[in-house]
Known about the structure:
Keywords: Membrane, Transmembrane, Transmembrane helix. This is Tetraspanin 31. This protein is mainly α and about 120 residues long. The radius of gyration is 28 Å and the shape is elongated.
Amino acid sequence: MVCGGFTCSKNALCSLNVVYMMVGLLLIAVAAWGKGFGLVSSIHIIGGVIAVGVFLLLIAMVGLPCKHTSCLQCGDMMLDHASEVLKILGGVGLFFSFTEILGVWLAVRYRNQKDPRANPSAFL
């Protein structure tokens, strides 16, 4: 799976549409919650926030109908890609962990060396 290709772009757009759906639902829920608890008294503000939430939710739903019956769902493709990426990131993290250990060893070794320019009769 090559990042930057059609599949990557499709998965990114699917993810973005899911995020927009959650934001739309969150807008609707927060507006209803604010009206229910009496935090916002203006019906125009509540109506505007709910209208924006519904509009965003509808646009996000349009961006998600899969037209082909044989296509894979975005979630399955993203999980496959995520497991592959996590394996690579684990290897990179392990590599840098060992370089950190090497850095600590070199720092301890450098700290315990005597400075050749220093006065040899000095205590430290």
